[in-house]
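step: validate -> pass
step: tokenize input -> pass
step: predict -> running
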Amino acid sequence: MHDLTKKFKVMSKFFRLLFVGFAAFSVNSVFAQVEEDAFFDDLGEVSTEVAANMPTSGPKEGLEPIEMPNPRADDIFWQKVVYRTIDLREKMNFPLYYPEEAQDNRQSFFTLIFRLVQDGKINVYEYLDTREIFTDEHIVTFKDLIDKFDIIHTIKADSLTNDSVIVVDESDVPNRDIVKFYVKEVWYFDKITSTFNARIIAFCPIMLKNTEDMGLQKFPLFWVPFETLRPFLAQTEVLITDKNNGARPSFDDIFIKRRFSSYIYKESNIQNRNLLEYNISAEDIRRDQQRVKTLLSNFENDLWEY
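step: predict -> pass
step: emit ->
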């Protein structure tokens, strides 16, 4: 009996030591994990890696854009092409303009497009006054863009191929001169799904630049199709509010959810004229803009009126 009691005490002590050892290991593992994923780094700054992947933001790398419906042409009962202007000086559009220089894992909407063109990842197309043609004959190369708009750059030789490479420093990207974008979009009614949808077709950045002869002038740079941009927009985060720096959706989220401010400058019409060409005063233009907005907003309701 005495031997059994002694053996029981030894076993109890062993299990206590085992429990303490396991607890100490668990605590160390937790602290190690906390240290690895710590919000602050060794210098007391917010960790760049963590700040870029906060729970309210989430990593964007590898994300695919949300698939959009692509109805059959025969199923489109009604459609209207509308052209808008996004003024980046309006507060609601600040997320598209800032930062003026890329920083904190963020870049402006134009800087993103500019770098994609520079890297040859997307094609952009010549701006024409009366129509948009997205064919190879109208492609604008990065060199064309640099030369035509006098963008500061240097030419360097590639270390591997020895080919000439155009280099534009971050401070020389003309983001500050891009204060507006044209947007081409189509509103349509799908009779199969009985839904009224809007879909962005393309963007055109507008540069404001001083000229010797004419003073401050606006220059449309090129058209870039929305669909070719979307894979990159979905992986690029944007800061949308000063109240919560962790809330960072993607550029694709902003455009799909239409979280931007704009005004109409043209609608599809027989004579292919914009509002400025057939309205005399600013009041007439505003009245016509309101007419188009009302047409779009009331169309779906009018379909089901009986």
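step: describe -> Residues 29-34 have pLDDT under 50 and may be disordered.
step: cleanup -> pass
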